[in-house]
Design brief:
328 residues, coiled coil, globular, five-stranded mixed β-sheet, signal, four-stranded parallel β-sheet, Rossmann fold, metal-binding, alpha/beta, disordered N terminus
């Protein structure tokens, strides 16, 4: 699913003034070909694979030190968005700075939202409408569409860990590039086909690994890799109150922490999935408990590691899980 968004005049004036105040240099002359801006290097890598040398790709977040949930966009980011032909976001409340930049920059770029491609935003909207009606009847007021922390309620927005969805996202990107640059449509289609072939090999590896591992219970400090773990046949039984608090940077309720520690001590957990980018005192305590219980800990991150592309990264994640839970 894609959308096209246009500027809000007041925001455009404000953003232009902001650029002047920061003393940002005038933008360089436009490079040949299309300009693509992605919220993170995960989507930037996929876009680059589809576009080849026919476009310039800019990833706003390309470091594990940057958190998309709380990222504060710069004047340089707004200039990049303003000059973009295509913008790619995760959506679902994960990278809300993109929506602000699109609205404030004056861009007429097409926006591809991975969460929308996955259908998550529609699902959340439908659930929210039903919940709002109940609230309106019982309390006489409507409920907000998000949970106050940028997330859409009832969905896991970390869709890049769902390799099937990423195939659909890649197809959406290729389709938009073909619309923008019809003369090179065949090249985009060819690049897409080559990339999908590589992705299908990863999907086959997932299926084989799931059959070999035999499922079981896992725990996680945050639901970032949940789609991948589910595809591998695992059931994540971590209390939602724990993972939600970690994801939102809030204090973990004492009961949720104790329930998580009890899960770790139950002897049923085969693996602890640990998000290195949202470590805290509580997650470190859970990690220490897992290590003391002999439970393997596998690290996951939210941005593309150095030296990896999307396909090799997903393959490395699968191999890490298989290696951790397979007896030597």
């Amino acid at each position: 699913m894609t959308t096209t968004r246009r500027a809000l005049p007041a925001l455009l004036v404000a953003s232009a003034a902001g650029l002047a105040l920061t003393g940002c240099a005038a933008p360089a002359p436009e490079a040949a070909g299309l300009s693509i801006v992605a919220s993170t290097n995960v989507y930037g890598d996929i876009a680059a694979a589809i576009a080849g040398d026919l476009a310039t790709v800019t990833s706003i977040i390309d470091s594990a030190a940057q958190d998309p949930h709380s990222y504060e966009a710069s004047a340089q980011d707004q200039l990049a968005i303003a000059g973009a032909d295509l913008v790619i976001e995760n959506g679902g409340g994960y990278d809300p700075f993109i929506d602000l930049l699109v609205e404030g920059s004056g861009t007429t770029a097409v926006v591809v939202s991975a969460a929308a491609v996955a259908g998550l935003e529609e699902d959340a909207h439908s659930e929210e409408e039903a919940h709002s009606e109940e609230e309106a009847h019982s309390e006489g007021e409507a409920h907000s569409e998000d949970d106050g922390h940028g997330h859409l309620e009832g969905v896991n927005e970390h869709v890049w860990y769902d390799v099937h969805v990423m195939g659909d996202v890649a197809a959406a990107i290729a389709g938009e590039l073909a619309e923008l640059d019809a003369a090179n449509a065949a090249a985009y289609e060819q690049n897409l086909a080559a990339w999908v072939t590589e992705l299908e090999a990863v999907e086959a590896e997932l299926e084989a690994a799931a059959a070999a591992l035999g499922g079981g219970v896992v725990a996680a400090t945050e639901p970032v890799p949940a789609y991948l773990l589910a595809e591998l046949g695992f059931d994540d039984e971590t209390p939602e109150e724990f993972t939600e608090a970690i994801e939102e940077g809030a204090d973990v309720p004492p009961l949720a922490l104790q329930q998580t520690l009890d899960l770790i001590a139950s002897g049923e957990v085969r693996l602890l999935a640990y998000n290195e980018q949202t470590a805290s005192a509580e997650t470190e305590r859970v990690r220490a408990a897992a290590e003391a219980a002999g439970i393997p800990v596998v690290s996951f991150v939210e941005t593309l590691p150095d030296g990896e592309d999307y396909v090799s990264w997903m393959r490395a994640n699968i191999e890490a899980v298989v290696g951790a839970v397979t007896p030597a």
